Amino acid sequence: MQTAFGLHATMRLAGRAPEILHLHGSTIACTFVATAARVRHIPVICHVHSSGDLQVEPLLPQALGIASMRAGLRRATRALGRDWLARVATHFVCVSHDLCREAEAIGISNADISYLPNGVDTRRFAPARDAEQVRAARRALGAEPQHPLILFA
User: Fold this and answer.
1) Per-residue model confidence (pLDDT) at position 1
2) C-beta separation of 96 from 104 below 8 A
3) For the whole model, what pTM was predicted?
4) What are the tens digits of pLDDT across the range 66-76?
5) In whole angstroms, what is the distance from residue 144 CA to residue 131 CA?
6) N or C, which end of the chain is more exposed by having fewer CB within 10 Å?
7) Predicted pLDDT at 66
8) Residue 97 and residue 115 in contact, taking contact as beta carbons nearer than 8 Å
9) Residue 99 class from Cβ within 10 Å (0-12 exposed, 13-18 middle, 19+ buried)?
């Protein structure tokens, strides 16, 4: 609920409402802020990056302070949250055709779904052509040859 109040506070500070709300993900906070936006007639775009973005985490255990929940009740509250997000979001943008199909499978109209893949500049981000390029890249990052490189994005 804090996120919905954050939207209201942001609107007051800015002196006007946003023209569009673009969500990444579908947490319970996203459903609250999307609902607050729709009450104010602000269009809501839900950007779907993974299957998890179409699965709203259940509200009930958070609201009641319950650490665990029976699987059936968890599925039911996820379904309620997912259905609610599908109703308040005015459009869904999916990064893959599989996600577009998954959105359709849960009842989102094809007319409310756009396919927009993540873009990558393949001239700038290309695999190293040889071992010397790998060594040069590691030197530029300050990574010792014996240490593993881990990328978190």
Assistant:
1) 43
2) no
3) 0.63
4) 555 566 655 66
5) 14
6) C
7) 52
8) yes
9) buried
